Amino acid sequence: MIRYSLICADGHEFESWFASGDAYDTLEKQGHLSCVVCGSSKVEKSLMAPAIARKGNREAKLHDAPEPVGDGGEALKAAKELAAFMEKVRTHVESNAEYVGENFADEARAIHNKEAEIRQIYGEATLEEARDLIEDGVAVAPIPVRRRKSN
Ligand SMILES: [Zn+2]
């Protein structure tokens, strides 16, 4: 016995059992198939829902055709989300802090020592400057750098 998903010309979908694939073909050619909903004899196998050997098909697919995207797609999605998040961080810093350019290390230290007005600042610092600041207990954090087209 074979179960087929069938669909009529009006789009009614239903399932029906046949003795074999050949039996189905014979019945179809002779016009003996009819829609269980509207009785239309214009019935064919539904391409949307293959009902036979579904389990077998799935196993074969796993062995013969591993998904080419899978992890790659997930990784790309994660990278895009991270990039979007970093952009948000940068935008937040830019709109809430004062840009002090290459004076960042001096300015951050001055604020830390209460020699300058206490405020949020951001700017450029070398890795060495940043390390010194952190060692001195100055609260600094790296922010993502916007990609530059030149330079
Ligand atoms: Zn129908």
Task: Walk me through this protein's architecture.
This protein is of the alpha+beta class. Helix content is 42%, strand content 15%. The protein is built from five helices and five strands; from the N terminus they run ββαβααβαβα. It has helices at residues 21-29, 54-64, 71-96, 104-112, 127-135; strands at 2-8, 13-18, 43-45, 98-101, 121-123. The strands form two sheets. The protein has a three-stranded antiparallel sheet. Strands 4-5 form a two-stranded parallel sheet. The longest helix has 26 residues, at 71-96. It is rod-shaped, with a radius of gyration of 34 Å. The chain starts with a strand and ends in a 16-residue tail after the last helix. Residues 8, 10, 12, 35, 37-38, 40 line the site of zinc ion.
